[in-house]
Amino acid sequence: MTENVSQTEKAAPKKKSKWLRKTFKWLFLSMILLIILIIGAVYYVINHLDWQSKVRELVHIYGSQVVGTDVNIGHIDISLKNGNGAVSNITVANPVGYGQDHIIKLGNIAVSVDKDSVMKVISETAKKSGSKVKTIVINEVRISKPEVTYELMDLVRNNVNDILENIKKNTATSAKKEEPKPVDKDAPQYNVAVKKVVVEDGTATVAAGLLGVSKSLSVNLPTITINNLGTEKQGVSIETGLARVFKEILNTTVTTVKNTDLSELLGGVSGLANGALNAATDAAGKAASAATDAAGAAVSGVTDGVKSIGNDIGGLFK
């Protein structure tokens, strides 16, 4: 009897140990399966939501709204492993009537994104949870070798001022609204908080085609730095962010051109204006001796008109 009890007591720990092994094995396999499912879900969300195409679409929509011409992105490649990536070929089209296709070309843009903020936005978008306004935090945007074309339409109009006027008008209009609205009114709104924007090694090509003379001159732009464009708690709309960057680039271009010796660019134009002025003056002198006062007055009017052209050329970039 004692021997049977002893054997029963020995068998109990063995059964318990076997049960524990099965339980731990089941828990371990369940954890592995859960991790696989999580990885698969993240992979599915990243690839099927195609968030980079969404960013491209938003930049096109809001950028075009703010400048009044087409804004497009060529390519986006940002790794969610480390948050680093690149954006290439952002272009801003010229207003109608100008010779060049684009006023701004941003060829090389290095981006450092807070990957946790992107994953949070992706997760909340997939689950349709959280706030409707999603903020992506960007540590730094570094724009290298941007190209600006400063094109003179005539003596009183240029493309840089046209775009700046568009930005002023369109941002004033959007400020009266609660927020810029995406195409889908039920879709979430994406904001950004950019800690630092650096624009370096830029050039501006000043192009003039006045009085039949086509000239161009390139000038180097100084480095532009923008800090704290939006905050992590409350970002700014993509529309506002793009407007700020474009305005800084264009205003810097205007200031640089004002402080640049443009004698090489305007030499041919000024020479033509001076030649026209001298010819008109000679004609006025000859006509004055043989023509009536009315004819002399007419020639005098031509002379004054050409003088006015000469004066306007001096104020083209003010």
Tally of DSSP helical segments: 7
Number of domains: 3
| Largest β sheet strand count, sense and barrel closure | 10 strands, mixed
Q: What is the distance, rounded to the nearest whole angstrom, between the alpha carbons of the first and last residues?
A: 114 Å
| Average pLDDT metric | 74
Shape: elongated
Query: Which spans of ≥5 residues are poorly predicted at pLDDT below 50?
Result: 177-182, 270-281, 287-315
SSE series? HHEEEHEEHEEEEEHHH
Question: Using only CA atoms, what is the Rg?
Answer: 33 Å
| Strand percentage | 25-35%
Which structural class is indicated by helix and strand composition? alpha+beta
How many E strands? Answer: 10
Helix content: 40-55%
